[in-house]
Each structure stands twice: as structure tokens, then as C-alpha cells.
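Course exercise 7: structure representation. Students receive a sequence record and must write out the corresponding structure in C-alpha cell form. The form below is the worked example handed out in class, using methylmalonate-semialdehyde dehydrogenase (CoA acylating) (502 residues). Read each field label carefully; the graders check that inputs and outputs are placed in the correct fields and that the protein name is recorded exactly as given.

STUDENT ID: A-19
EXERCISE PROTEIN: methylmalonate-semialdehyde dehydrogenase (CoA acylating)
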Amino acid sequence: MTVSSVPNIKLLIDGKLVESRTTQWRDVVNPATQEVLARVPFATAEEMNAAVASAKQAFKTWRKTPIGARARIFLKYQQLIRENIKDLAAILTAEQGKTLPDAEGDVFRGLEVVEHAASIGNLQLGELANNVAGGVDTFTLLQPLGVCAGITPFNFPAMIPLWMFPMAIATGNTFVLKPSEQDPMVTMRLAELALQAGVPAGVLNVIHGGVEAVNLICDHPDIKAVSFVGSTAVGTHVYNRATQNGKRAQCMMGAKNHAIVLPDANKQQTINSLLGAAFGAAGQRCMALPVVVLVGEAQSWVPELIEKSRSLSINAGVEAGTDVGPVVSRAALDRISGYIASGIEQGATLELDGRNPEVPGYPQGNFIGPTIFSGVTTDMSIYREEIFGPVLCVITADTFAEAIALINANPNGNGTALFTRSGAAARHFQEEIDIGQVGINVPIPVPVPLFSFSGSRASKLGDLGPYGKQVVQFYTQTKTVTERWFDEDEVVGSVNTTITLK
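STUDENT ANSWER:
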């Protein structure tokens, strides 16, 4: 494909797909082949302001749209996503690199949130206290905030946008979405399907860009709340800048998730779970398991971890049977390779080196295979920093208590897992571990949308998580109404200058 024939990604403003007038563009590149799939614009300030203005205008009517009418749009939307899930996965794999089955999983986990959005009215109910004083009732209303915005990362370009705008819109807000500039194509297709489902003009807008777009979202006075998923550095910037401007903000950020393996765990099931969580999506998940802590006799499992990892297939995501696809970019590949080199330099033992694999038919792909280090200590860069690649660090502990203490000492708190057959050990673990999301024989404990994503500590800024019950509180303002009605012939005897209601 020649550059001149590469399509331009559009902006979505006021219900229309708009060609940007920017002079700044970025290529969307297939990470398995380096083919340029499209060009994404870095929207101008005028275009971004127009998107916000459209959302602000649409809010005037959308906020008064009946709950049932909003729900029916999302019932239609989930149907359209189901009907198009294969095509959505194909787009996602082409621009992001993950395998087709994993791409379908990406879309499906977002679809679950859309399904929940269709019934979110049940969670937007207020409370009533009758006769709190003489003839006085008090009740609460959960009302939408106005224009909300979302900033999403490259690693889940379908799921995470679907975490955000359906919940915001279903609760009566309007939305401005800024997807990752690295892989915006599937996000735009999801936006088109939302319009097809009946989302009115201006209720959902999509802009593209980099730092300028992020800062405009944080600064714009008409945006009332910002949701972010991405790196710790950017998330901290977004949270600080948005909240200083009086906005609500929720930022899901970096992680260094651990799994503890006790000797009584089912060996084969545990090894399969560990490797799937460590190397799935080429390790590009904030809920991946890049660290395993082997306790006691489980330390002897390392050779089997290595041998099983060798059997995983490294190939383009479109190829059948692929276990590990390419990472998203050349820059990511170089960063991960640099971490591997630092691990060797700092004294870890490189048990399995995934660098420079041969992938027939894809010589230009951003491939790196499963990589395993043993002898890792907590002062090494490969332990302290988020690699975001298919690199597994093996740490050993003599006791269960030592393993728990090691995890609790890590500043991050996104997710953790324990593998065991002991109910007593599991109960002790879930009580003592200071991590927001806990799996017991579940390697990636991301909750279904009936609950909320609950990462903690350095992995999260803001009190309320995305989707589920918590996000209804995030996207609504509680208004308390206290009222008294008098009978037509009732006369108040005297002026009441006290603070109490009688």
C-alpha cells in the first residue's frame, strides 16, 4: 500500500465523521508486518473544542432522555457488537498485534460492560426517608454531571473504551473520547456502531492526538470528569492536572502483579495459568503476571516452567495456533530488549531468552518470545519497573508469610493471585494481602461488570473504579432534596428561628 492510498482516520464530532484539517499525522502500523494501515490526525485545538461544544449542547437534551430510551440504545448496541465481533477482532489484530482469539476476548470483555450499561438504571436509584421531621421528607437524586472524557491506552483498544463511554452515556452524560493514537481503528469502528445503535449526535465524540489533546481534556472548563487508563507517569499527570482544574478523575495506572505458588497447588494447572497470564497479549496487559513467587518445594518447578514456555508459538496474530504475537511497536520492542539486557547486567539468571526469534513469513515483525529470569531480587530494574512485555521474573521464598510480605512491600496494587489447594491458606491470603484485586487459582482477577475494577495503591488514583456500581457514583452527582408540603388550610403558628425542623 502506497502512502497516498492509506486512509485517514476521521474525527467524530456532533454525530459526523469529520476529516481533520491538521498538519500533524501519525501512521498506524501493523506490528507484524510494518504495513501502514492508516493515518491518524492529531486534531487541532479548534476541532477538539468543537467536540466538547457538541457534547455540551447535546447534554441539554440527553440528560432528560428517559432511562428506558437510553437502555434500548445499549440493547441495540450490544447486538451490533455481537454481530460484528469477528470483524472488530480482525481490525484489532491488524493494528495492535494480539492473536485473533485474544482480540475477540478484548471485544467481548467490553461487550459485557455494554450489556451492564443497558440495565444501569437499577443502580441510579436515589433514596427516600419519609417524615424525617414533622411533615418533612428527604430524598436523593443521582443526576448526570455533564460532559465527561476518557483517555484510553493501546493495549485494549476495544475493551477499555467500552469501559468508559457506555457507562457515562447510560447515566445521562455526554462523552469525548481520546483513544490511543497507536491503534484507533477498532475504537472508531465501535463509535460508528454506537451511532448506528441510536446514540444521538453530540452524545459521543472522538478526538485524536497526543499531549495537547490530553492537556485540553484536563483543562477544558466544560469537561466535568476524566477517566484514564495507561501508564503511571501519564496517569499521575492527568489526575493532578484534572483535579487541580476542579474535575473528577479516575486513573488506572501501572502495575507489577505477583502470583504466589504454594507447594500444594495443582502443578500443571498452575503452570498453564502462570504462562498464559505472563505471556498472553505478549505481556502487554496491566493485569499480566510478570512476577511469580515460588514458595518452598514449588521452587523445583522452574525447569517445567521453562520447558512449557518453549512450546509456545510465536507468530503473527492472524496465524492459527499463535500463542504470542508481536508487541505493538519498534519502540516497545527496543524497550523490552533493554530491560532483558539490564536483568543480565544486574545479576539475574536468564533461563529463557526470547529475543530475536525467527518467525517465518514475518521478518519485519516486532516479535519477542517468552523470556524467563530466575534469581531475581527486588532491587533489580526487571522487578521494580513495569516491562510490559513477555518477561517473567521468578522469585523464591522460604515461607508463605515471606511471600506475602514481599508483595505488600511493592508499591503497586493492581492485582495478585495465589495458587493453592488449601482453603485456609486462601482465606489468610485474601485477608492479609494489600492489593485491590485478588485471584485464588485465577491468574487475572479482573471482575465482571457486576463489580468494579478495584486496583489500589500506586496503581490507581481516585476513589472510584471504572464500570460496575462504583462508576455510577463517579458519573453522577448526588442531590439531596428536603421538602415539606402544607395542607391548604394549615397555618404556621409562629416564625421559627432555630436550625431544627419540627
